[in-house]
Structures are given as C-alpha cells and as structure tokens.
C-alpha cells in the first residue's frame, strides 16, 4: 500500500499490532491503537454502559443486569465500562444471554499457552476463573512478529489485545461470563490433569450439595484438598477458595455464585443462590 497514489487511507481492525523490523521497514507508516493504549479512538468502539441501558429499555425480554453480567468487563482509557457490541446485539435480537463469542484460531493459541503452562500462565488463569484478579505489569508496546509471544507479559498482552482478558490499573482479569465459559471449556481438556477432573465432576458436587448429601460433599472436598494440584497451598485461603470455585463450577449455569460476603455474625466464604426461588448457602 505504501507509495500507492490510489490509496488515500487504509483502516485495519481485528489484528495484533504489526512488528516493525526497523525504521526503514516497508510497514513503518501505520499509526496503531490497541486495547492497551488508545486515548483517541477508544470511545468509538464497543457499547458504553449508558448505551446498553438505553437498548435494554427498548425491549422487555432481557434485563440490563443479565446483559451486564454476561458481556460487561472491558474498561477504556477514560475508565468507562465497555461491552462486547456483537454479543449485546445478538442477545437482544434473540432474547437470550448465551455465548455469542466468535470462535477463532486465536482461542486455540490461548489453549496451547494453558496446555503447556507457558511461564505459569495456567496457574494465573485458574485464579482468574475462580474470580481473582492478577496483579501484573503488562507490556503496552507489544508487537506481533513471526514468532509467538514468549514471555508472560507478551502472552497476556496478546490475550488483552485479542479481547480475551481485561486490563486496568495494573490488574488482569477475565472480563465477563461469556469469556469465563471459554476458559472453563479450555481447562476441561484432559491435558490439565486433576484440574479437568474437578471441573468435569463439578456437576456431581452441585447435585450432592442440593440433595444435602453432606458426607459426599465433605469427601469430594477432602479428596481435592489432598490432591497434588500446583495452585493448592496447604492452609492457604486463596488457593482453597480457587479449589472450591472449581468444584462448584457447573453451579454457574443455574446459580449465582458470590464469594466472601461479610456480616456481623459470620464470614461467608461462598454464597450460592438460585436464580429461581430455591436457594442454599455454603458458610465457612
């Protein structure tokens, strides 16, 4: 495109920043704006919270809260909450909040990072699936070359730019329920060993809890606690919280799972409430 008189302007979207090999590179004429660094055009991409509220008010099938839980999670340079526009539109058109994330080869690359636990990325993702943010400094100048990203910050930078993760004020997280499901599916691969077993058996854990089979619930948690899982540190509150979250992962399909609610009488590690009338809670 360079030096072509018939090209007035070229606009490229949905690609990683292009790596310039030198100042004389044939691709040195681009101005690049990414999810990590865009103070000019960021306001024009995605739906803002106010825009989503206005769209929800025009129909009665889906509430704003449902949309927010599923497709919220991104934050722009100004600190405004940004929603996945395609998923919001699809949900409002179909009257149902499900996964509308477009399957791409990029997710396969993410699965490879998790599979081989490159730079211990898998442990961080398990924590994020469990609801924790990861404190890390990200390389905002990441550029895509012919070689795949090698360092942890390069891997996370690529995942942020591709929209799989959200990054704000030094903290990394999985943006919303829609993408949480994608990571949950990735962790069910047999290559993840006991972690995949826990997730696959989480439906049995939920069933035993609803049926008040306390001995079975206790046995499942005991077995998990005594297994050899990289993220599990004995008597560590955060790692135990991750394990319980994985054990009840399937509960997210039909229940609202909330962690660490404090009150005057007790400290509630997990509270799992039904979207319908029935409900139960797990207290420490």
Automatic annotation (TrEMBL):
Superkingdom as given in the UniProt entry: Bacteria
Protein name: Putative AAA-ATPase
Native organism: Clostridium saccharobutylicum
